[in-house]
């Protein structure tokens, strides 16, 4: 059987949020409506078959394997089932080789995956010394039931992952918005501080200029030196004012005789 390379388009469309129990009950109701001719015993047998496939998924595959590996195995099993259901007479879909790279990765190596394929109706055999798993055409009902359970589980997990991714994205956006808000607040604080520093600098400069002006007004005025020249015409004491140079005559003293 050729390697499964694609996942059905329906796997990419998330189903509405619903619990696994409600999903299983809805599937059971659809099955009863589609097959009203089944007896109570047949419906009970079908219900047990569905439950068996559910147990093969959980805990069979999902618990012992990493989540991503388990989901990849389930998608590969669903691709194998749907290809065969769509073209049951196509030989390339009726068998697969366990040595195929994708089959080994998703069915042989993970725990429980190959057991699920066997429950779908594939049995091991050797052809030309090559190992194969070939589908038993008598197990078509098992194949159909297993494909239904696989799709239900994958749809539910896809929706859960979508919700988790949206929640994670919203949390990331909230963290980024908060960080941006802090950054903007920091930048605003820086700008406000720079503005305050400039205003304070201008105020200090203005105060210094005002103080200098006041100091200049309070300094005493620089008056010119006072005039020390004596008033008068400049006569010499003792002179009579005559033009001759003879000294003045002295009066005789009354006791000079």
From TrEMBL:
SUPFAM superfamilies: PUG domain-like (SSF143503). It comes from Galerina marginata (strain CBS 339.88). This is PUB domain-containing protein. Residues 1-21, 213-257 are annotated as: Disordered. Pfam families: PUB. The lineage of its organism: Eukaryota, Fungi, Dikarya, Basidiomycota, Agaricomycotina. Gene3D superfamilies: 1.20.58.2190. It comes from the Eukaryota. Residues 68-144 form the PUB domain. Residues 1-18 have a biased composition (Polar residues).
């Amino acid at each position: 059987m050729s390697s499964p390379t694609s996942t059905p388009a329906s796997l990419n469309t998330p189903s509405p949020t619903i619990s696994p129990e409600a999903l299983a009950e809805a599937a059971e109701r659809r099955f009863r409506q589609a097959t009203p001719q089944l007896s109570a015993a047949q419906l009970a047998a079908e219900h047990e078959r569905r439950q068996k496939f559910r147990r093969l998924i959980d805990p069979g595959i999902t618990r012992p394997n990493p989540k991503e590996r388990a989901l990849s195995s389930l998608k590969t099993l669903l691709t194998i089932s749907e290809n065969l259901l769509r073209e049951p007479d196509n030989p390339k879909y009726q068998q697969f080789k366990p040595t195929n790279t994708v089959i080994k990765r998703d069915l042989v190596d993970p725990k429980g995956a190959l057991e699920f394929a066997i429950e779908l109706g594939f049995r091991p055999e050797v052809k030309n010394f090559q190992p194969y798993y070939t589908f038993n055409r008598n197990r078509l009902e098992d194949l159909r039931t297993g494909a239904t359970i696989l799709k239900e589980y994958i749809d539910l997990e896809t929706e859960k992952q979508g919700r988790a991714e949206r929640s994670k994205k919203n949390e990331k956006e909230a963290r980024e918005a908060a960080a941006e808000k802090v950054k903007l607040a920091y930048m605003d604080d820086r700008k406000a501080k720079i503005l305050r520093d400039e205003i304070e600098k201008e105020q200090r400069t203005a105060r210094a200029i005002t103080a200098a002006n006041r100091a200049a007004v309070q300094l005493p005025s620089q008056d010119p030196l006072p005039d020390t020249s004596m008033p008068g015409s400049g006569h010499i004491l003792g002179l009579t004012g005559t033009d001759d140079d003879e000294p003045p005559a002295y009066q005789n003293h009354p006791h000079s005789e």
